[in-house]
Amino acid sequence: MKAIRVLCCVIGLFSLWNCNDDDDGLTLFDNESGRFVRFYLQLDANDVPIEYPETTSNEVPVSSYELNNFNTLKIPVVLSSQTLTEEVTVNFSNTFSTEEHEDIFDILPENNLLTFNGNQLSDTIYVQQTGRISSNDDQLSFKLDSVSDSSIHLGYPRIQNPLSALTVELSETPDYPFQLQNDSIINVQGNLGEQIELRVEFPEGFIEREIDTATLLTEVSSDFEYTLVRRPIASTTEIVYDVTLSEELPGGELSEAILKLNDLRGYIRGNPPELKIVRPPRTYRFQDSIIQIEGKEEETFVFKLQFPDGFDVEDADRLTFFEASNPFVFDHNIIREPITSDTEIEYRFTLNEMLPEQVPFDLFLNLNEVEGYLATTPNTLQISKPATIELSGNPAANFYNVDDPFYRTYGENWMDFNEDGICSWQSFNAFTIPLPVDVDDPNGVQHPNGNYYHRYKVGLVSPNAGRTTNPFNMKRWFNNEATDEENSPGFNISEALEFFPENGDSTTSGFVQVIEQDIIIQSRADNDGNRNTYTVRISGSGTYEELTNGLFEIDLTLQTTNNALFGGTRIAKYKIYNNNSYSDPTEPNEACFQPIDL
User: Fold this and answer.
1) Which of 21, 190, 429, 448 is most buried, taking the most CB atoms under 10 A from its CB?
2) Nearest to 336 by CA among 345, 344, 347, 327
3) Contacts of 147 by beta carbon, 8 Å cutoff, 6+ apart
4) How far, in whole angstroms, is CA 426 from its chain's centroid?
5) How confident is the model at residue 336 (pLDDT cuts 50, 70, 90)?
6) Residue 25 predicted with pLDDT over 80
7) H or E stretch including 568?
8) For 112, phi and psi rounded to 5 degrees?
9) Greatest CA separation found in the chain?
């Protein structure tokens, strides 16, 4: 079809020439067929050769071209004819205006013979530069010399610019650009054996012998193993490298290799000069940071873990993505829903008890550090039950005495203190103090001494400077513990218990909570002065009531969490009294624990 189109154009040109012969100086060859062969090099608007058979009607073929890159110059030679019944050959010649650059060009075909047959009415001369041009004002000239069919004329049948010759202007070779073809960051999945391509682009081409042994890429840094192999040269405009991962990359952290493009003599390095191969961490997070509940038994809702980069379904069974920092704050169940998405997991929460209206409860679910994933924010989900009735009274005053700096509360802790395999109530006492507050604190009450104290909170702190008390009998939980405040500040707890009167206003009973917090304790120093340090998360809850006139009992369950000490969370039972006039409490039918060596 293209040959027919060219023929039609030629016939049209013949008609034009016949009508305007006197005006344009064109003279038709006097032959029956009107067939002719000529150079047909067209340039686009940027003077870049159009690769035949692509053509444009907007540009006429040129008789001169300035060589300005290393790319192979493809010079089309086109024969205008009907379908050929016999093969036609055309001889061409090429000459340099000087001998200076003859040895740095390869010209094909080597026998300078072009061939046309059937509907194949075009052939191509290939000019490949193999070295640099060292001076200006040289020329490479091509000329159509002869044709095997005498009825075919060389060049257009016209006097002016018959295109039977073509001149390639040569000038001193500048430094051509080269650059990374890829984006400055390439993400990988991180699988062993995964392969990606890196391409170094030479828009204006390159001299093969100049880069055949050149090191184009150098590693700046990498935190994973890979191989970098350059492919055999298959193009005059790019060099291709294969990068293959030699290890499985961890999903829960950033893995990154940085490669830089080296300087190359005779070429100008473009941007970006560096390339990052990145395995981004797979992240996960809670969809919400807080969910508020009413506190009704069997209350239920669904919360979600989101995985923006996806997750492996088997990981949902294999990994524990989150856990509660205070799992015993109230009785509840959390069950995973069926998985229907690869970017989120749903969990159903159910409350198994009715929570008192006057007590605020907060359950904190925290994302774990798990293999293959990175926790991002929100990394904590707070399930909150606020207090719904106002409090009144001053229950904390039942458990301190401002006028007695050595005032103590007394208690019993269910444990195997003697390590003899027998559980029993272990007696203890702890200095108990009020919590000072500002005069404008809404929970403050003024004491006759003029100071204001919290109506619902008390602390467990020694009155002796630098010393500690025995909160919740915890000093008896360990052997070799440091007891001074400098090393074990956790044995003084300035805010330890909070009271919530029943119905908001009862003066004799209510609920009590251990104020959730982290405390720090240490071992005694060894011979080298070294100590073991432990951070223990404490929480808990219970009830209080007045047993007899002035004697209050706290029935408390304490939770302490530290994996190194307890392998998770330890549950401890207590009876605590505001004076020592109590009777021995009933022994529970429960297991207990023994002291631990620090």
Assistant:
1) 190
2) 347
3) 37, 88, 89, 90, 91, 153, 154
4) 53
5) very high
6) no
7) strand 568-577
8) 55, 35
9) 137
Q: Is the peptide bond before 273 cis (omega within 30 degrees of 0)?
A: no
Around 92, how many Cα atoms within 13 Å sit in the side-chain half-sphere? 32
| 58 confidence band (pLDDT: 50, 70, 90) | confident
At 412, which amino acid appears? E
Categorise residue 458: left if φ over 0, alpha if ψ from -120 to 50, beta otherwise: beta
Structure-model confidence comparison of residues 100 and 56, the more confident one: 100
Dist CA 596 CA 598 (whole Å): 6
Extract the tokens encoding 548: 């007899």
Spell out the alpha helix ranges (H) of 141-283.
208-211
Q: What's at 560, amino acid-wise?
A: T
- Written as six digits, the tokens of 337 are 């829903």
Burial class (CB in 10 A: 0-12, 13-18, 19+), 543: middle
Task: Give DSSP secondary structure letters for 74-115.
Answer: EEEEEEE-S--SS-EEEEEEEEESSSTTGGGEEEESTT-EEE
pLDDT tens-digit profile of 418-440? 999 999 999 999 999 999 999 99
By the 8 A CB rule, do 175 and 267 touch? yes
Name, in order, each residue with C-beta under 8 angstroms of 453's C-beta and a sequence gap of 6 or more: 396, 397, 400, 402, 434, 435, 436, 437, 444, 445, 447
Which token pair is 126? 């290939």
Antiparallel, parallel or unpaired: β 64-66 and 165-170: parallel
Neighbours of 88 (CB within 10 A): 22
Distance in angstroms (rounded) separating the CA atoms of residues 337 and 104: 73
Q: Is 563 helix (H, G, I), strand (E, B) or coil?
A: helix
Tell me phi and psi for residue 72, to 5 degrees. -60, 125
Helix (H, G, I), strand (E, B) or coil at 429: strand
Strands 380-385 and 361-367: antiparallel
* pLDDT tier for residue 411 given thresholds of 50, 70 and 90: very high
Q: What is the DSSP string of 318-368?
A: H---EEESSTTSS-EEEEEPPP--SSEEEEEEEE-SPPPTT--EEEEEEE-
Q: How many residues does the chain have?
A: 598
Query: Which tokens belong to 417?
Result: 């203190």
